[in-house]
Write a structure and sequence with these properties.
binds zinc ion, signal, TIM Barrel, hydrolase activity, acting on carbon-nitrogen (but not peptide) bonds, alpha/beta, 14 helices, 45% helix
Length: 350
């Protein structure tokens, strides 16, 4: 699926790069470095309607980014070191990249980890124990499969959507995403999704046993000093929709569950969804009081010395499956797209 907005973004980024503007502007906008955000890394992108394609990049593209940035002298560092560099202001002349992956998709172990090993690149995977233990599912992917299969979806006492044609399916997908995100409460989502799946005779999971990593796989990866496992709540709820007590509980319980499995409490955290609608000042304060050293959002931006005061609201650069070209990744990491995406602001904090 081609998005008009994507075409414009791509054209602007190519122009910024090829005119040399991005590399010149990097001195002003690039800051200390970038935290890049990935979700899925796999050679084949399976997205029945093309609507979740942005979540996947190929291992080859991941490797291309690493090789290219390393050849320019970029340091690949862990989140521990990001915190250290931002706090101390040390090595300002060396630009860094920290690699983060959200949700703990199973392909992180099978396809991304070998690339990180080959190039000795530290990485963080933010895992939600609810996904691993079946208390939550990657519902956006289940909704995509559901809409791909169904001709009609009706929610008891709720709205209904026609999904006979491809274009109806795509609009139904986006409407259901909005319904789940803004109409239902976080606690209603799973029961409603289960009912929707039952009505279509579908199992309520992405693909049995092949969606997120098992604790065994996470343990195996965690033995490698390159790997950091971070927290991502238990149930992957939008924290802004919960009470402060529930937010603290989601953070606290998830850290405890990870510690039970790995023997070490996670030190770093990622807010589920991570946009301004899902994480703000209140969530940052709670993450800090829960003892996390850092917390990342999904807001678009590079890392600057000013972030020493807001280590629990660090922006990231999303490496998106619809933008799999070095020129786009490097332009975003130069920081020139930060003010474009954030009403002129160079430093993005909560
Ligand atoms: Zn997530």
């Amino acid at each position: 699926m081609v998005h008009a907005a994507d075409l414009i973004r791509k054209a602007v980024m190519r122009l910024a790069w090829h005119t040399g503007f991005a590399s010149t502007a990097r001195e002003h906008f690039g800051g200390l470095g970038s935290i890049i955000m990935l979700h899925r890394v796999r050679p084949d992108c399976v997205s029945p309607l093309g609507v979740t394609r942005s979540l996947s990049i190929t291992p080859a593209f991941l490797e291309q980014i690493i090789v290219s940035l390393k050849s320019e002298g970029t340091d690949f560092i862990s989140m521990d070191e990001v915190v250290e560099r931002v706090k101390s202001g040390k090595r300002p002349g060396r630009r860094f990249v920290a690699v983060t992956l959200d949700d703990g998709y199973d392909d992180n172990f099978r396809h991304a980890y070998p690339v990180f090993q080959k190039h000795a690149v530290p990485f963080v995977v933010y895992v939600a124990p609810g996904f691993i233990e079946g208390a939550a599912v990657l519902w956006w992917e289940v909704v995509e499969s559901l809409v791909a299969k169904a001709d009609f979806i009706r929610i008891p006492d709720g709205p209904e959507w026609r999904c006979g044609t491809l274009s109806q399916k795509r609009s139904a997908f986006h409407a259901i995403m909005r319904y789940f995100s803004y109409t239902l409460t976080e606690l209603e989502q799973m029961p409603v999704l289960r009912e929707m799946c039952a009505a279509q005779d579908m199992v309520c999971s992405v693909a049995p046993d092949r969606d997120v990593m098992s604790w065994n796989e996470i343990r195996q990866m965690n033995r490698d000093p390159l790997c950091t496992i971070g927290g991502h709540t238990v149930h992957h709820y939008n924290l802004k929709k919960l009470t402060a007590g529930m937010v603290a509980q989601e953070m606290h319980l998830s850290a405890g569950m990870i510690e039970d499995q790995l023997g070490r409490r996670p030190q770093h955290f990622a807010y589920p969804y991570g946009s301004a609608k899902a994480a703000g000042r209140r969530e940052a304060d709670i993450a800090a009081s829960e003892g996390f050293l850092s917390a990342v959002t999904t807001r678009h931006g590079t890392i600057h010395a000013e972030h020493r005061d807001t280590l629990h609201a660090l922006p990231r650069i999303s490496i998106n499956g619809r933008f799999q070209k070095l020129v786009y990744a490097k332009t975003m990491m130069s920081g020139v797209t930060t003010p474009i995406a954030n009403a002129g602001r160079r430093v993005i904090q909560a």
